């Protein structure tokens, strides 16, 4: 079978090597999945640098956490799946339900353990979720990391109410999923971008408030204006340099700020007074559990939500896909067909 | 000004008397509202019998809790409203936010205190909520009791998630609002009725599961079938005779049953084992606070939800409206224009 | 090794047979525990009748869910335990954390699977919790079912606040643990019993309100009197005949009723109006997860709580222990030393 | 009657002037309280500088939020109180229950409105709470701001469980109340101080973990050592310079950080990665509502908790009291008898 091997730390064009290896055989409780598609996240660029927790420049691994495929064989004691089932893999293979534990960290696909960019991949039967009927493998492959992060932020730590307003920053994967998921729960969305073209597309996706932060560098004030001075109920703070203080300013009294994607060591000079004075709650969000993934899949199936795919690459074009993601030109997810 | 006076305990045709009284003047912190519409709830029939808590056959009162109108005058220290504002009155005038307290009970409009079926009505400035722009007075007048009860059940005691399934029993006001509100939050709805005609209308409103409980008296089993044997995530149990045990049976393990509208002394023979064995949570729901009403109004405004009005009456036809409601023929709300 | 084999459905004196079998060997991920003590619950009487879910008069099994012992051997891949560790077994072996699922039911020790009344017992490494340092094996053996049920009711579904009042019914295992656990969280306890002698002992354990329900059959009114008419914040309703309606009456507006131990088919004639009129929440409680067990163990360790043991039996006296439990004369737990 | 008038911005010795004014008369819904004691908070030093939100160097006001006294007269429509009742005033007079709203900010005693340092003071009947029977006026006067802040952090935003560990920073008022309140709920406490003498006193109050941050500047590592590397369940972060990053480091995965008292513009250079990587929740806490105050009073009454008073001053010594508080030598609360 074909698989990609990542050499963290090398230049992207040389870091991703296509190899042939033996197809594995499922052991007890294991499921063999023929992977059909994978998707990239910003996190995968950090992994490629060897800077992701649990990775290093010494250890080679199969990259990417997000993949979808079809069950082709099952081991003994597998009760949940049978050949033909269409599945995605859970980002954290060991975080099944309940509280996140430090030990779960090591089970992150494409980080602590090998990822999904291979023709075949073994998973524990507890580490998979069913793909909604209306989605293709490529569409489903976009969900396990970015969409689940957005779902976790919007629905699992605190309840998003119909009629509330959510602020999403930029047009990356998590933000665009938050835009879509918030709307299917009856909430309104304000979005920021540096590009009027992207804002136009965001408006087509349903955002009712648009802020070009290049034209309005004090974008928190623009957000307050759009909410009659009240501020938004929830901010999906995906963490560019210097955004956190403005996110605090843009939240309403009693509001929620979901802190996501702070993988790199950007330090912000923060005046924490608004957290106290406005009684804010700041939630750290790090993808989610298998149980959350299952709940999200039900929500996506019920609503017919379709992920936004920007561009497709083949497994042979993996390096090109990484370079394209790094360019920041995308709007929506970058997918690799396997 | 015109007002209706209710003599609880009399036959409906004689119990509701149209009278002329003086128009009141707002005191400190009070708001005078020109009422334009009111709506009826099943509870108002109980009040008319003198059987509602806080009412008696001796005390006459202005009936109905649900009304909408326009602010026409304000007293001193009124900061929230000004003439021209379109408002509904809160069912509980004194339950502003936070926990329900026994003392709040006495502030129920059309029960512990006079209701809204009058041309003019004084309210404390804290007992009103703004009408969404897309709704008429008649549409808004349907919301304070039945819709808020459904909102409270779906969103305030536990979080309804996109993709969850809600079971509504029958086609009364609370059930139809629950049908509409659950959908705008991304949930799916199963509805029951004794009439295929009504089920057809419920399907047009978006219900994806339909059960005629006359044809399928063991409707809990039909609901289990519709959910692959899992049961629904939440039941809106509005309390006909003998429904509670089946509602418990129709809920999934870990599910929620919202108990609503148990105003009369129907006793059920209940086997409480499913509550324990399935780890259910049963929530008693009794309308809601002013803060909940405001949150619901935002949700309705964001979604453009339009209440279902069955029939309109004039204030002179008040008795006819009551008799019509009692007949049970309606689908949606019965409204009185003032 | 010695083990007890239960023949459900036989008279107690003949149903429990002492046998010799081979000592098992731990497989991958398994732990061998030398059991030192077990304790009985009311549920074990139901199992002995063959009436417990998942049991039958045909299937023989090792009885009892509650046991404590010492790790003596571990299989491959066991990372959590090593020989010498003192452990209790979790009631549900498969409910690790998060939501209860129907499949977890079959993993109940001494019910769906063999229990702990044996000299040696294999467990998955995920199905155990560490014993607090201040407790003996006998004391620890009382905790997995009754204490965890009380913990779950008091702390896991809703927050018990310091200064709140909890009502416990009777002096069975769950009620006495609820008495102790509620107090260590700063709450006050009202207890009922049919015996003044038992009430005296309950007072020594810290209960500040005492009601003899034989002398005061309308004990709900006595509870209201003890709370200045407000009612208690939480009721631990362990389910004798006819108690549920009085529990609803004894709860404050907005209060919580935890429904526990409804294993047998007692039907109550219930007027559900108080659930709605007082906005109560009724929680069905069925023991708890391994994660809850671990949290409880921390709470017990921090507080130095010591379980109340009524009487000790040897494994050879197992039938006597069952008969004694059935007599209802005990105050606190009945323990079997192995 | 005597009252103190504060001139914000003046040196402390000149800023606090003793004056004679007329005793007010209660209007509708108002209660006249003979104040017997008041207590100081760090916040009152900020007010004295004119730097507190809603204050200025131009506006003179009666200072201090925390006071206790006896009801001596009531106005019309007062149903909750009668002469002789012993009461404390709520920090926020208008935040009764439910969500904090921006408008509530202006109702802070000794800030947006006049405070309690006067022989007599009028309050709305809704702005008071009853004093537990075991507390003197001086003891009760310490509770409304610091103790309620600690209560809010520990019990109202998330549930503190028996057996959890709470970290308190320094020995100020909020931290010492958090130490006492956490213990009465069955939790363990780790405390930091720059003084071994103070740590000794903290140990006498029950803290089981002690860290001298002068001797161990990397005190977060000492806290991790005290918790077997896991970190604490909750941090009461009262906000000295540079503490926030260490508080994040000292919290367990999934832990809670309560951010309190950030009144001044200290900016921290924060690396927000731990918030995300450990899935922390950061709660901004700003005193609390009247309903929270009532709940805390019940908890204090049930437990017999006695606040720690460091030193008492007379109203004539008000300036001395402020200067003493500013010196930072106190351990526990500084009280003024009126």
Can you describe this structure?
Four copies of one chain form a homotetramer. With 338 residues, chain A is of the alpha/beta class. Chain A has two domains: 193 residues, Quinone Oxidoreductase, Chain A, domain 1; 127 residues, Rossmann fold (3-Layer(aba) Sandwich). In chain A, 28% of the residues lie in helices and 27% in strands. In chain A, strands 3, 4, 5, 6, 7, 15 and 16 form a seven-stranded mixed sheet that branches. In chain A, strands 10-9-8-11-12-14 form a six-stranded parallel sheet, sandwiched between helices. In chain A, β15, α11 and β16 form a beta-alpha-beta unit. In chain A, α4 crosses α5 and α7 runs parallel beside α8. The longest helix of chain A has 14 residues. The radius of gyration of chain A is 20 Å and the shape is globular. The mean pLDDT of chain A is 94. Chains C and D meet through α10 of C and α10 of D.
Write the layout of secondary structure elements.
The structure is a homotetramer of 338-residue chains.
Chain A: E1 2-6, H1 12-15, E2 16-20, E3 30-39, H2 42-48, E4 66-74, E5 86-89, E6 120-124, E7 128-130, H3 137-140, H4 143-156, E8 165-169, H5 173-184, E9 188-193, H6 196-204, E10 209-212, H7 219-226, E11 232-237, H8 243-250, E12 251-260, E13 268-270, H9 273-277, E14 281-285, H10 290-303, E15 309-314, H11 318-327, E16 333-337
Parallel strand pairs in A: 8-9, 8-11, 9-10, 11-12, 12-14, 15-16
Antiparallel strand pairs in A: 1-2, 3-4, 3-6, 3-16, 4-5, 5-7
């Amino acid at each position: 079978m074909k698989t990609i091997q990542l050499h963290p730390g090398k230049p992207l064009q040389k870091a991703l090597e296509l190899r042939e290896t033996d197809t594995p055989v499922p052991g007890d409780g294991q499921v063999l999945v023929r992977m059909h598609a994978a998707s990239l996240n910003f996190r995968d660029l950090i992994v490629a640098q060897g800077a992701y927790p649990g990775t290093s420049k010494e250890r080679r691994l199969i990259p990417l956490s997000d993949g979808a495929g079809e069950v082709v064989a099952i081991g003994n004691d597998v009760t949940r799946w049978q050949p033909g089932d269409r599945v995605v893999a859970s980002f954290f293979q060991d975080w099944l339900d309940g509280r996140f534990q430090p030990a779960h960290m090591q089970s992150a696909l494409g980080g602590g353990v090998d990822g999904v960019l291979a023709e075949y991949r073994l998973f524990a039967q507890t580490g998979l979720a069913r793909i909604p009927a209306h989605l293709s493998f490529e569409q489903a492959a976009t969900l396990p990391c970015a969409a689940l992060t957005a779902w976790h932020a919007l629905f699992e730590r605190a309840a998003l109410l119909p009629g509330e307003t959510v602020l999403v920053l930029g047009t990356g994967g998590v933000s665009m999923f938050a835009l879509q998921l918030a709307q299917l729960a009856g909430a309104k969305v304000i979005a920021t971008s540096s590009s009027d073209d992207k804002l136009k597309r965001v408006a087509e996706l349903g955002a009712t408030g648009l802020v070009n932060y290049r034209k309005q560098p004090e974008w928190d004030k623009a957000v307050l204006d759009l909410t009659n001075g009240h501020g938004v109920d929830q901010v999906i703070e995906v963490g560019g340099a210097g955004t956190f203080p403005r996110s605090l300013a843009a939240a309403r009294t009693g509001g929620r700020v979901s802190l996501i994607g702070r993988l790199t060591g950007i330090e912000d000079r923060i005046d924490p007074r608004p957290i106290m004075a406005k009684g804010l709650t700041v939630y750290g969000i790090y993808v989610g559990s298998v149980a959350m993934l299952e709940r999200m899949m039900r929500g996506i199936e019920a609503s017919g939500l379709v992920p936004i795919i920007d561009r497709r690459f083949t497994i042979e074009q993996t390096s090109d896909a990484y370079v394209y993601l790094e360019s920041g030109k995308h709007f929506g997810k970058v997918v690799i067909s396997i």
